[in-house]
Structure formats: C-alpha cells, structure tokens
Amino acid sequence: MKLIFVLGLLAITQTFISSGQVRNTRAVTNAKAEQEIRQVEDRRREALLRGDTTTLDQIFADDYSVVNQFGQVQTKAEMMYALKFGALKFESVVEDNVSIRVYRDAAVLTGRATSKHEGRESTQLRFTRVYLKRQGRWQTVAYQVTRIT
Length: 149
What we know:
By secondary structure, the protein is an alpha+beta fold. The chain has helices at 2-50, 53-59, 76-84; strands at 60-67, 73-75, 90-103, 106-117, 123-134, 137-147. It has 3 helices and 6 strands.
C-alpha cells in the first residue's frame, strides 16, 4: 500500500515538474519571438521612413491589409504603390507603450504611435498589428489604427 502511495506521489510530482518545464520553455520561446518581432518592427519603421519598398515587401505579407485612421481598407498593393510613388511619405514615426503578445506562430502588437506624413500635421494613434510566422520568418498580415483626439 505504501509503495502504491509513493509511486502515485512520484507521478504527481513529475507531472508538476514537467508542467513547470513546459511553462519555462514557452516563456523562453515567447521571449525569443518577441525579440525577433521587435527587430522586424525596427526594420519596418526604418523602411517606412526611407520609403524602402523592397524591405517592406518582405515584411508585409501578400495578404496584408490596413484599416487606416479614416476607416479606409487598403491592400498591400495599394500601400506599396502609395509608398513607391510618394503619395504616402513618412517624416517621422515614434511608437510607445508597445505590447507584444505571442501565440505560437502568431503575435498581436498594440501600442500608441505619433506619426507625421509629409505635408500633414503630426497625428497620434492607437494601433493593433498582427504578425504570423510563415516559412521561418515573421510577416505582418494586418494593421489597424485609430486616431487619438
């Protein structure tokens, strides 16, 4: 009877230890993913400021869509065209209060941004950006902004 009790206790202990290891592994994996996404975000911001559509083409997924501050839906092709031909030109983009939540091969970013487009006033926004990890790299698939008044 004691042997059954001890074996049961060992099994329960092993389950708790394994559970803790899974959580620790997930935390390390999420931290790595967050770091990778922050690097992509830095590249994206720099590319927006330079109008570097080659870099943005890699970061924006083919099915990328944007809901801008005016409620208009734009595709990747429309964004790339506007950036390439100067209809959309960023002078500055500053983001803060950025939170990244990772869900395996998906991540949701939320935060606040202050951006200035050429010929316009500076605008403060709240944003949500969604990333998916495809073929070993993070790409943004959706972006939505709301103007802060």
